[in-house]
Amino acid sequence: MTPIQKFNRRLAAAGVLSPQVTVVVAVSTGVDSMVLLRLLQQLPVTERPQLVVAHVNHHLRAQSQTEAVYLQRYCQKHQLNIKLADWQVTDHPEHGVEAAGRQFRYRFFTKVMQATGAKAVLTAHHANDQVETYLMKLARGGDIAQLTGIADSRPFAGGQLVRPLLDWSKAELRDYAAQHDVTYFEDATNQDVQLTRNRIRQRVVPELMTVNPRLLSHVADYQQQLADLLAAKQQMVATLLPTVMTKTGGLIVSQWQRVPDQWQLPVFKAWLTERTGGLVSELKLKPLVAWARPSSSASRTVAVNASWELQRSADIIEAAPIKKRGKKLMPQEKIMVDLNQWQKITTTQTVGIFTQAPTATSQPFWLTTADWPLVWRPWRSGDRVALKGGGHQTVRRLLINQKVPAERRDQVQVLVNAQGEVLWVVGHKYSYRTTGTQTVFLALKHKS
């Protein structure tokens, strides 16, 4: 099967091969997205969807404006509907520009979908992107489910996000562009090996392809195998879960312990997720599983997070909401961080650490495995934040410089790691970091 046949097959699977369907095409003017646009234009009229070109001028390099003007003229010449957005320099964060730019783009795509009634957004992710993403996740570590890589489609903004070029290599895209006289622009920042993805793209992938030129297809095969295994695991857990639960949803410990050892943790996780409605980080899950196994020294209750606890009664474990002790947060209180959950730390502040940005103002931040577990707590004398130049600033001096009234300083909370280092003075300043093993997003919601 040729790459173009595979391209058409992915579009058909997404249900967008129809002139009755409108799709948004994300076009950056690079070779990937310009080839994507040309391939869509070459579809037979009876199959070609209505195309809406979406372009974001990130203002990250001098030629950004030239690219935007070219694309406008191209769309005018080919009678294509185009929607433009500008990400102004004044809105660029001090660091984490790449992640923030991605958030801006996808918010814009959502708006375009809603305004045009589009069924899908099409992006030009290709086989090389897939391998780069796989290697980055492999290096950072985490849940094995994350190694499934870039999905060919997923739900997005009431429709779907479709990547029809995942079977194409970068070389094949360049060959197509040369053969069909496709004009495109090279992004000079792609050569900047200060960025992790670029280092992998420019140095690691080429080296691996000298070992085996079929690297791209092999990684794709492994990812499909992993996706199949995870799907089978999910089906098995769904089969086992009802056998260990009471009619009211409690966990029957003796029944759960009869489940084969390798299935006990995933079944427990599925039960806990179903009962609490939230995900529990792997770091917290293992101690909870150990507690669930009967022991003469085990307590009758254990906290899952700030909102839920597990209660043991004979052979049954129940998940129950923690009764509120009052609205005021005690100054000496510490709160363990629950990944991918909002947590109230003061009467006016709700915070969270997420693997995907939950809000437009979320701050990308590097973490390492050694940082966990993380804690929210009031700041203390001696706390300090890391600065960009390599120095530090005390939290006390920071609050004075930011003219925080003395009576409000005691209410300021900080995020600290397992070593007691301050990573974030909530609402005021982030510690400076440029490397880590995991990218997360720090988010804050205010209530007046």
UniProtKB/TrEMBL annotation:
GO CC term (a single one): cytoplasm
Subcellular location: Cytoplasm
Lysidine-tRNA(Ile) synthetase C-terminal domain mapped to chain residues: 374-444
Principal subcellular localisation of the protein: cytoplasm
EC number: 6.3.4.19
Entry keywords, A to Z: ATP-binding, Cytoplasm, Ligase, Nucleotide-binding, tRNA processing
Keyword Cell division part of the UniProt annotation: no
Source taxon at top rank: Bacteria
Functional note: Ligates lysine onto the cytidine present at position 34 of the AUA codon-specific tRNA(Ile) that contains the anticodon CAU, in an ATP-dependent manner. Cytidine is converted to lysidine, thus changing the amino acid specificity of the tRNA from methionine to isoleucine.
Family to which the UniProt record says this protein belongs: Belongs to the tRNA(Ile)-lysidine synthase family.
Name of this chain's protein: tRNA(Ile)-lysidine synthase
Source organism of this protein record: Lactiplantibacillus pentosus
The encoding gene: tilS
